[in-house]
Amino acid sequence: MADLANCPNCGKLYVKNPMRDVCDDCYKKEEAAFDRVFAFLRKRENRAATVETIVAKNDVTKELVYKWVRKGRLLVANFPNLAYPCDRCGALIQKGKLCDHCAKGIQDDLSRFEQEKRRKEEQRKNTYYFKNF
Ligand SMILES: [Zn+2]
Ligand SMILES: [Zn+2]
Fold it and tell me: What is the pLDDT of residue 1?
């Protein structure tokens, strides 16, 4: 059975495809835009272009460029000034889903949670011994 969804880009109903996250029309437009951007970046003088420059010179949206970088279609190893926003705070990053700051924040939250859990366990144990006296 075909799995229908609304295209997140234009809102049109389309048959979902695991390889594509937008409808056929948008997909074709995105691919054409990708070819344009890739041809632009392949020029030596554009290798160090930032997302802003790419957007300004190639008639594409920032979101689209971010998507390509996030998916690894545009490699930061080849184009060192490309980046995409952190899932949490929007700071520009080049790998993973979170910036260092947010990644560290989540880790701190986790260890605090672990500590709290251990403390409660200790408390429960103490109460238990107490009752047995
Ligand atoms: Zn669409
Ligand atoms: Zn962040």
Answer: 63
